[in-house]
């Protein structure tokens, strides 16, 4: 395998992994839970000041670092992928029923208008 084939294979693997629902849910959960990271990273402060604030405020040493970097995003991902669909299904059914009623009402109104028009 030459270098270009290796890079092509690497790109395909990275694309496959980053487009999976698991990765997407984890990335969104991580970003939402660690939003302060982005606020500080894109602030106008110097890099050394940014790093100091991140270490002190965003990712403090000890157990909280583990919670913010891995535990909370993993729990949120699990909720989104495994529990949310069961909660969303009745809401979606209700919404579909309302859409069906609206369509029936529109068709009924049109038929009445055509009959009287």
Structure description:
- There is one protein chain.
- The chain has helices at residues 3-18, 21-33, 35-41, 47-58, 63-116.
- It is mainly α.
- It has one domain (26-116).
- Helix 2 crosses helix 5 (63-116) and helix 3 runs antiparallel to helix 4.
- The longest helix is centred in the last third of the chain and has 54 residues, at 63-116.
- The protein is elongated, with a radius of gyration of 25 Å.
- The mean pLDDT is 88.
Short summary:
With 117 residues, this protein is mainly α.
What general form does the structure show?
A: elongated
Helix tally? 5
**What's the main sheet like?**
none
Number of strands: 0
Report the C-alpha radius of gyration, rounded. 25 Å
| Helix content percent band | over 70%
- Tell me what portion of residues adopts beta-strand conformation: under 5%
Structural class: mainly alpha
Q: Which regions contain 5 or more consecutive residues with pLDDT less than 50?
A: none
Whole-number count of domains:
1
Distance between the termini: 75 Å
* Integer average pLDDT: 88
What is the chain-wise order of helices and strands?
HHHHH
């Amino acid at each position: 395998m030459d270098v270009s084939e290796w890079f092509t294979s690497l790109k395909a693997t990275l694309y496959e992994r980053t487009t999976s629902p698991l990765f997407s849910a984890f990335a969104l959960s991580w970003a939402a839970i660690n939003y302060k990271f982005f606020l500080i990273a894109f602030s106008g402060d110097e890099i050394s000041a940014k790093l100091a604030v991140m270490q002190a405020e965003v990712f403090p040493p000890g157990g909280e670092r583990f919670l913010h970097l891995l535990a909370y995003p993993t729990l949120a991902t699990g909720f989104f992928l495994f529990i949310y669909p069961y909660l969303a299904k009745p809401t979606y059914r209700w919404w579909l029923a309302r859409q069906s009623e609206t369509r029936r009402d529109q068709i009924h109104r049109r038929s009445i208008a055509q009959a009287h028009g």
